[in-house]
Amino acid sequence: MLYGNESIATFTRSNVSIWMALAFQAGTLNIGGFLACGRFVSHITGFATYFGIEMDRKNYASALGMLMVPLFFLIGAILSGLLVDIRLKLHKRPKYYIIFGVLFFLLLLIVVGGFKGLFGDFGGPPGFADYILLGILCLICGMQNGMITTVSRSIIRTTHLTGITTDLGIGLVRVLYRKKIDHQMGDEYRANFARAGIIFFFGLGSLIGGAVFVKSGYRGFILPLLITGFLFGATLYFDRRRPHADRH
């Protein structure tokens, strides 16, 4: 994945390391968004529920905000599809470094905006600025999730746990019946370890992120900013290095 080539070995060491780092990052983003705005970032089902509640209460402006925020998650997934999925299907090199660059810029925008008070008080009363913050965070999660879904061939998702927990449960049953379905197992063992790792690192990110955000407010977003910054630098380096290596 770091090299941006077409031949993606699903469970290479670099891929798995990136997945776990992004799961940790997603945990920090979700706890940060919840503590800042009182809403989970990548829980799209929850936004639909809040939309229904606000409509019932006749809070139409708030309901519209709840409806618009998940659209940013969709936009993020679309951008990821354009930069990674379609390019792979066209046998072109995916632009991982552009995705990580955009994520880095968006997180930097959140950090600077938090310092400048653009999103209001951290954890303060809900307001219009909360929807802007949630929209940016959903855009980040949509891009990240779309990218990882593609490179893992839909085995791994890093920004929410419902699907990955379901897949782990099914995978564990397959392992229990491995003697009867051995010819259909494939990479199920490694997939289950990866799924369990995603759940663990997402929870770890929420745990550590919670402690950081409670003490630091918007400054807590520096933690995922550093992770994305490192991955941006790594993918950009290998993308620029690969053509040079191919020429030699």
Task: Write the topology of this structure.
Layout: H1 13-37, H2 44-56, H3 60-89, H4 96-116, H5 128-151, H6 162-176, H7 188-216, H8 222-247
Radius of gyration: 19 Å
- Global outline: globular
Helix content: over 70%
Number of strands: 0
The overall pLDDT, averaged over residues, is 84
Number of domain units: 1
The separation of the N and C termini measures 21 Å
Summarize the helix and strand pattern as letters. HHHHHHHH
- Sheet/helix structural class: mainly alpha
Low-confidence stretches: none
The description of the largest β-sheet is: none
In percent terms, what proportion of residues is strand? Answer: under 5%
Tally of helical runs: 8
Describe this structure in words.
The structure is a single chain. The chain is mainly α. The chain has one domain. 74% of the residues lie in helices and 0% in strands. Helix 3 runs parallel beside helix 5 (128-151) and helix 4 runs antiparallel to helix 5. It is globular and about 55 Å long. The model has no long low-confidence stretch (mean pLDDT 84).
